Each structure stands twice: as structure tokens, then as C-alpha cells.
Amino acid sequence: MMMVMCVNGDSAPSHYFNVLDFGAKADHASDNTAAFARAISNASTSNGGVVYAPPGLYVFDGHLEIPSGVTLKGSYHSVPSHDLRQGPLQNDGTILIPREGRGDVSKDAFLHVRANAAVAGLVIYYDQQETVQIPVPYPWTILMDGNNAAVTDCELLGSWRGINATASGRHYIARVQGQPIDLGVYIDQTYDIGRMENVHFNPWFSSSQPFMTYQLTYGRAFVLGRSDWEYVFNTFAFGYAIGYHFIETSTGSMNGNFLGLGADLAINASVRSRITGSYN
Fold first, then answer.
1. Structural contact between residues 60 and 36, judged by C-beta atoms closer than 8 angstroms
2. pLDDT digits (tens, 9 = 90+) for 172-203
3. How close are the terminal C-alpha atoms of the chain, in Å?
């Protein structure tokens, strides 16, 4: 465990765990799954805390579980945004690079966020995803399945399916950007108020063909199933088959408060509603 200095000069809380102290290497080569897992385990057994990953490129051949009371935090203090059409990804903060499950959506989500856990201040970048040819499926990037789970200030670049909030009452998804390809955010089985705000998806990972043809034909930015009240504010999607897809699943349908919804170049529908369905 390591004491660090905050931006304002104050010492960080004692339950603050730097992944470098557990063997992580931000070298865009080494597998960091075990090192991050050790840091997360230490935070969990210390009754919670912040697991901090300093700026750099961290590769993962496996997946991670974020248990109750633990926050996995990167260096970005506001939501990052990168336009890869203008050049390679700028190494300007904490960038996690998942490689597990290429071509297999049935594998475990890269980050599994449990109740009262959080992920914040990160870029998640799929460096082995296609950028010109038809995109390749991957497992979910983030799965939230406990009450009060949170994802904030994150960017998803080349993610096949972005954030899945299922059975996650009082979830909080805020200040997320990027380009999930097949599905951006999925919400279902929410039996207490969920919140999603300031989530914007743009084709800045790739707008090349035939890559973009797939997203325009099949991609859905927001798929909304059962929620017993959802607050959705200032969300936007550009370049999908469907912007907002309201569905009724086996557990019910969506109701809530929606303000500032935006969709551009939604080829099939900006908003679509159907009687039954799923995210598949």
C-alpha cells in the first residue's frame, strides 16, 4: 500500500492502492490482469478503497472483478475524448487495453462492477479491434450487476458492447464517451431508480468502410428494458441503426424521465419501441 499526494497537495486516504506497487506495467505489452487483481483484492480485504492506475498503457489478457467498496480509478478527472481519425491514440492518461475474448461474446465482461463499486477516469481501448474491415465481436466491456454500481468519466474505444446494467438498482452511468459498435448501453431488471447522464457516442474510433456499414446496419446506442424509473439526461448517439431502442423483456419495460435525448444519422430509427425483445 502506498501513500500518494493529491493534486491539491493533501495526502490521499490510507486505503489507496497504486497498481504499480503490485507489479503492474504500463508498457503496452505485459499482461496486467494478475497485478490489478492483487491490488483490488488488497483494497477489498482492507474494507474498501481506491485502486489507482497511473497514466500509461495497460494490457489485459483476462478480466477483472471490482468488489463492493472498491473503486478502480484512472488519471482522468473529467471524461476523456480522443478522435482516432486524426491519428493514433494519444498516451495522455490511464488506458486499459482488453484482449480477452476476441470473437466470442460469451466470455466474461472485461470489468465486472459489483454492488457499491465503481470505475472512473479511464480509457478502455481495444487495440486489436478492426478499424477498416467488419468489426469483431468481444464480450461486454463493463457489466454492472449490483445496487449502487457506478461508471463515470470513461471512454470506450472499439468496444463491441459497452455497458450492461442488469439487476443493478440505483446504478449511475455518467460522463461516458466513445464508440461502442454493436451496442452502447443496455439497462434491464432495474427495480430501483437508475441514472444515466451525459453519455455521448460518436464515430471517432473509426468511420471507415466497411466497418461503419456494420454499425449503421446493426448497431444500437441505447437499449432500454425494465427499469422502475430511470432518469436519463443529455445523451447522444451518432451513426447507428437505432439510437434509442425501448424493449419489453421477460421482467418488464422501461419507464422514467427523459430529457435531452439526441440521435443523428440513425439509419433505421432515432427512437424505436417494440413489444418484446432483448439486447441480442
1. yes
2. 999 999 999 999 999 999 999 999 999 999 99
3. 42
